[in-house]
Recover the amino acids of this structure.
């Protein structure tokens, strides 16, 4: 247990009738805030979604499996996308990072208002040909309620999801974290009733983390009376696997003609990773060196190999 570290725990309770996950994510949410220069509402939305994705990815089995949460909304933030693996790595961005709105009726950051109406899509990429995709209409846009509804509607697993981000006065992240608690199909009525009572009784994730900033404390409160048994602990972090080589591959996929256009412009190009905002510069000489690696079909026409299936970088960023 360490109050200054971001980490995630997995636990069971009530003779395995309940499984639970909890995470603290202050540092990784602050890192994302700095990378994307997000406003407080955007930071809250991103932090909540990243905490949720980390716990949902922890349920995946394969070492290369990925879980993506995509939210598309008609509010001023427009939506967000976060991707986590099951080694505790998460990355993500919001579409409009600078959105600012007045507080909601409860005096909190109005994440639901910033998201608006739209859809929640959960993509589980398990290295099969097609990823598993589940989609539901957003319930509130506050993210935790939407993920709870996703589990009920799309996976038929009764779940309670709590997510929170609390900001400091100077707009840095003070607390962040969350929990996912799920009932197994054989859970008995007594367990269900007690869990529901617990969930109704808790104030907020960040209030609990203010008492003690550990996932253990969060689960102790959510699962009070159940004596949860922690079965694993894992460090979590904001981590992006982008690199200049990956962007090179993206440029090559644009094809010969597109690269020749870039070269004839005679200007260096800067490509930015959407997930972590890292910038990669390519001089025209560097782009020229990529030309022989573009694929040319037997008929002599330019072809693009199959489009990028993975989650990563976009290569259509603006020329600088
Ligand atoms: Zn990146």
């Amino acid at each position: 247990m360490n109050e200054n570290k971001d980490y995630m725990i997995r636990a069971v309770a009530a003779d395995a009738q309940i499984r639970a996950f909890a995470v603290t994510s202050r540092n990784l949410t602050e890192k994302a805030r700095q990378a994307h220069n997000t406003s407080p509402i955007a930071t809250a939305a991103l932090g909540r979604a990243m905490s949720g994705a980390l716990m949902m990815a922890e349920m995946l089995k394969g070492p290369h499996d990925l879980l993506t949460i995509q939210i598309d909304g008609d509010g001023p933030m427009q939506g967000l996308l976060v991707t986590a693996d099951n080694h505790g790595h998460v990355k993500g961005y919001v579409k409009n990072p600078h959105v600012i709105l007045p507080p909601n009726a409860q005096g909190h950051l109005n994440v639901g208002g910033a998201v608006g109406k739209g859809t929640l899509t959960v993509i589980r990429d398990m290295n099969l040909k097609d990823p598993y995709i589940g989609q539901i209409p957003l319930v509130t846009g506050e993210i935790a309620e939407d993920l709870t509804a996703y589990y009920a509607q799309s996976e038929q697993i009764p779940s309670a999801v709590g997510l929170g981000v609390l900001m400091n006065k100077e707009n840095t992240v003070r607390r962040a974290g969350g929990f996912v608690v799920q009932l197994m199909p054989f859970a008995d009525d007594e367990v269900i009733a007690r869990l529901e009572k617990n969930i109704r009784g808790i104030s907020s994730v960040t209030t609990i983390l203010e008492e003690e900033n550990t996932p253990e404390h969060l689960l102790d409160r959510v699962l009070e009376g159940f004596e949860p048994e922690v079965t694993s602990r894992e460090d979590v972090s904001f981590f992006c696997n982008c690199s200049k080589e990956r962007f090179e591959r993206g440029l090559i996929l644009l094809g010969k003609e597109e690269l020749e256009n870039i070269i004839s412009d005679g200007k260096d190009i800067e490509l930015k990773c959407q997930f972590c905002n890292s910038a990669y510069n390519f001089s025209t000489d560097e782009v020229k060196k990529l030309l022989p690696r573009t694929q040319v079909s037997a008929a002599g026409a330019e072809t693009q190999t199959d489009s990028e299936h993975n989650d990563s970088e976009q290569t259509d960023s603006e020329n600088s």
Q: What stands out?
A: The radius of gyration is 22 Å.
